[in-house]
Design brief:
By secondary structure, the protein is mostly beta strands. Helix content is 8%, strand content 66%. It is built from 1 helix and 5 strands. 4% of the residues are buried.
């Protein structure tokens, strides 16, 4: 009954790199809990790779910069 809200952005730094941010507001009872990510995306001819961090207020108490993650997208 409550939607997950997402908002994202990307700023191209060069032909093959960009700064990215993907963010989610997830229903948590009568409020929303936020999860946000930030990192860099590398582009190839048929692949994109993200090197980024996931974070929220709870995660930042243990790991200030967030939990690292890697994402691959392959065009076929």
């Amino acid at each position: 009954s409550s939607p997950v809200i997402t908002f994202s952005g990307m700023h191209r730094m060069s032909r093959k790199t960009a700064l990215v941010s993907e963010n989610w507001l997830v229903p948590n009872g009568n409020t929303y809990a936020g999860i946000y990510s930030y990192g860099i995306r590398f582009f190839g001819e048929k692949i994109a790779v993200d090197l980024a961090f996931l974070n929220n207020p709870d995660i930042s108490t243990a790991l200030l910069i967030g939990i690292p993650y890697v994402d691959f997208v392959v065009k076929f």
